[in-house]
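Weekly structure sync, notes
Attendees: PL (lead), two postdocs, one rotation student
Agenda item 3: pending single-chain targets
PL asked that the sequence for the first pending target be pasted directly into the notes so everyone works from the same version. It is reproduced below exactly as submitted, 989 residues in total.
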Amino acid sequence: MCSNILGSYRIEHTHTHTHVTATGHTIDVWKMDIWKYIIRIKIPSPVSYVSAILLLIFITGVYKQLTLTQKSANNCEMTFMFEYPHFVEISVPMNRGKYNLYAYTEGQTMEKIKSMKFYGTPVVFIPGHSGSYRQVRSIASVNIRKMYHIQSNVKFDFFTVDLNEEYSAVFGGVLLQQTAFVSQCIDTIIKTYEYDYKPTSIILIGHSMGGIIAKGLFINPSFDTNLVELIITLATPHRPLFLADHYMDSYYDQVEKIWGNGLDKPRSSFLSNISLLSIGGGHRDLMVWPCLTYTPHADINALSLAIPGVWTSTDHQCILWCKSLVKSIVRVLFDSAESESDDTIYEWRKKVSSYHFDKRSNGKWFHSNLHPITVKLNEPNVIEWNETYKLQRSISLEKGTAMPIIIHLPLFEKSVNYEMTAEAVNIDYHDWVFSCKPDYHSKKHCLFGTNWSSNSTISVSKHMKRRHITLKIPDVYKLGHSNLVFKIKNTKKLTALNIDLYEASDRTNQIFWRFWYGVFDRHLLWKVNVFETIQYKTILRGWSASICMHCVYNVHMVPIKCSKKHHHAVSKFIVPWTQGVLHGITSDSYVEPLRISLENIPLSNGTTNPYLQFILDPTCNYRIELDLSIMDTIGTIGLKYGLTFPSYIGIIILLVLSNQFSQLANSAKDDCSIYHNSLPSIIRVFKTLVVTICFLTVIQNQWPNINKPIGGIDWLGHPLKTMVFSSLLYCITNSFMYFATVALWMMMLFWGKAINELLVRFIMKTLQKNATLSDWILYGFGKLPIAVSMIAIVISYHTCGTVGLVISAFFYYFLLCTLVQDCIDQLIYYPVIFFKDYFMKGEKPGLNLSLTSIHLHFSLFLLWLLICGCHLPCSIEWARNYNHSKYLDPDPSWISSLILNTCAGILWQMDIPKRNLKFYAQLSNLCMAASIILFLFCQTALFRIAPILTLVFLIITLHQCFSSWIGVQDLTDNQVNSANDKVPQKKVE
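Predicted structure, written out during the meeting:
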């Protein structure tokens, strides 16, 4: 006879026949109405309906964010291979076997590379999470084509590291291994060169987690830091997306220790001459968001949609093959190597990268004399055009001009508040805007002028090349100049020049930012009803203090009236303390709103505010409006804040367990209710949140490194934001768990019936053949839980701890299905037994239906599933590397697997919960305390969840296991009388 959780399958052997009956798992007998029990789950409260609506909106927003981002047009042109690529393997000493090093080659260089002859500067590509070494093809191929095209003396040799496509973003146990191998690769590459061509430095290009590996090379004190001069990271999370294990947390800590955090930790002195360029993909990259690619110790932080000439967002893989972006990277490599300036190498690289990734004023290549400071203006055969009074001027030359034109704009001692904005259309000449003081004799002509063209930037355009410049007139006065000069070289193409001289206060407004702007209707920023003006500006004050750090807004420039068919306007979003300008355009019938979000703006202690700048077409009137993109905001918040869901799921399960143990401590019936009835009230949750947030605020202020910001979660420690988003996340998670647990109950009802029938059929068929065998089978069923837990422990030791947890989880589910089916059988057969006993024997049978054991096991099973989920990245990495190693090393899930499977082997053999035990109230308080700890310390450090839940599981097991030592609690008089009034009823078989 088996008396464990598997149920009571009683087999009676006689000399003439074998009889099989299945009885339920009985605990305490108490009478109740059948149909009343069926509808026993409480009706959801109004808060539950609100939570369900929030969950629906949340799912819809995330779905839209995922689908629309993938379905929206990708404006990146793909790079093409002109010749077949080859990867030549290079032997690395002390190789672990699963990693490799290759040299990239194609075309004419193939034979030299195969013979291990290298002559250029080595460039090492480091792939990221699940990345392939073949992803180097685009950058390497474009580099080789460019080298042949410009016939440059500068040459680069591309090497690529094969890291076995490991999942380094979700399992930090491989990061140190990968770092050590890349370090060996660098030593091997340097030794491969012949003595005359031995390089003094190398260039590292890291994609995704490969960028972190590049920065992590300097953790090792023995690594020669002089070998690396330039690091380019592409879509690299410079702060962790999520902390799945303590190995990743430790690795990021070590990297931050030497690279600094831009605040109280400066970059180490031995890294001062290393240029670090960080490039992000923008809002299309759903894996590494813009806020993660920003790092305060980088020389350049840029988003692809803000890089001049690229102006498009890239997804996580597209950033490697987007042609315009790849070309910009290649130009940085070539321009950095060709320096004729007196600057140091570090300063020169910074100028080059700033030009190509931030403020490109004109050409595709940068050199030290690109914009000479002083330029001769008085040239022969020049038509002079003197504008004396008009502050706004638009010149359009549809057929170009045969001779150069100079536009001379006297300032006439304008107020210090004046500014000038100009737009050059199809003016290819590098130098086009100057300031000067007229010659004393002519009083109109300037022989020489100071060049301001380096202050201009090229701008996004649907047609024709455009450059914009904004100058403050006081800066011109400081040079002693009183005139602005614009130069148009002779050309046959359509050319235009728009000039706008204005008082800054007339074209600037300010709004004190409120996150609800544009929620119900578009918020009006400007209504421009005059022609020929081209520049307007809106300063966003209080933006960084907004409660919604990841709200997404769209800025619309709607043309109201245009005097010409073709028109073009540009909106810009400028953050003074970061690099890059975000653009939106309105051209003819094409309208692309400017998407702005706080996720692109790291916090700054400066007083300068971000602002919007609008360069309008002088032939149009505009209405400029702002609105909140609600679905994009919800989707963005869902993708970023969804990383906290495991902690909130754990909090809810622990609160349910706390209520169930409290019921066991206070109930005379020793009963704990179903999961859905054990959920805490919203008032209790709110009170707990208020108290916990106070503790969290103090902890974050005193020890800010305990909860490091991960992903987009950086609001911990801010009381109001924490309260708002914690309440929102709790409601959404609670609603999700409600529906998920209902679905799980339905599955158990369905599968329980099928499992029960298969099991009974198997036993009956076996009993008919061999009675001895049947005894062994019955004995085996009795010992099956112990066997499963032992097998799971052995498998965990030889493979991965998570594998053992998953095996036990399936068996736990099977046991729950069996228990549920036993109770269903009682409900089904109760009317027949009632009719038989009441009308034939005159006795009224009782219904033996107490589901306390099922309810407690169900909550513990949810706890088990969450622990499995927290350790799931371990099993993914183990499966990925199974061909190289049968076990995972290191394995952060091994301890949890050992403890939980040992506890399960005990609990599955016992009838729990034990009756009238002491310390149920203390167990309830323990679960409540554990839920608070999850809230305080586990929202950003997900690897802390599993140990805490494992400890709770262990304490519950010890409490039930040592019940004979713990003793029975004293019952109150009411509890005793209530217990004595209960009349035992006949059991139902």
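Discussion points:
- Residues 1-40, 973-989 have pLDDT under 50 and may be disordered.
- The chain has 24 helices and 31 strands.
Action: rotation student to compare against the earlier draft before next sync.
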